[in-house]
Specification:
Elements lengths: L1 E6 L15 H16 L12 E12 L8 E11 L2 E10 L9 E11 L9 H8 L9
Antiparallel strand pairs: 1-3, 2-5, 3-4, 4-5
């Protein structure tokens, strides 16, 4: 299971003193890009790339708030679904412990070429994605 850690910044909070709901999608994105970096696949998801993974669906479920200064751990896993790639996320806060996530979510992606037309994954990317194991489902 891939893990990405970060601290909540003051500018990510709102007038209720908690992380604004829109920032959790950014945390998912940060974790996904770090996963790509860890797998040496950033060339497949950058402004200069011939192929990118376009988001076609996104879900986020808020269970508990995160606060300024909390250390968050974003756990990520993914699986291929035909041509599509499903990423699943669970965010844990040091404030509440590692047993139950404070936020869960999912993004569904489709490979796009530089003209934003649906295309196939390259053999290299497909091979890397097929190695991934889906071990849990967070609700």
């Amino acid at each position: 299971m891939f893990e990405y850690r970060r601290y909540v910044q003051f500018y990510e909070t709102d007038l209720m003193k908690v992380v604004h709901h829109s920032n959790y999608v950014k945390f998912f994105e940060e974790a996904r890009v770090e996963w790509l970096r860890a797998k040496n696949l950033t060339h497949a998801h950058s402004p200069q790339a011939d192929l990118s993974l376009g988001v076609i669906d996104m879900q986020c479920r808020y269970l508990k708030p995160a606060y300024f200064g909390d250390q968050l751990t974003v756990k990520l896993q993914l699986k291929l679904e035909g041509r599509k790639v499903r990423f699943q996320y669970a965010i844990f806060s040091d404030r509440f412990g590692a047993e139950k996530p404070i936020t869960t979510g999912m993004t569904l992606h489709i490979p796009l070429n530089s003209d934003f037309k649906v295309c196939s994954l390259t053999p290299e990317i497909k091979q890397q994605l097929e190695k991934e194991q889906w071990t849990e489902t967070w609700h």
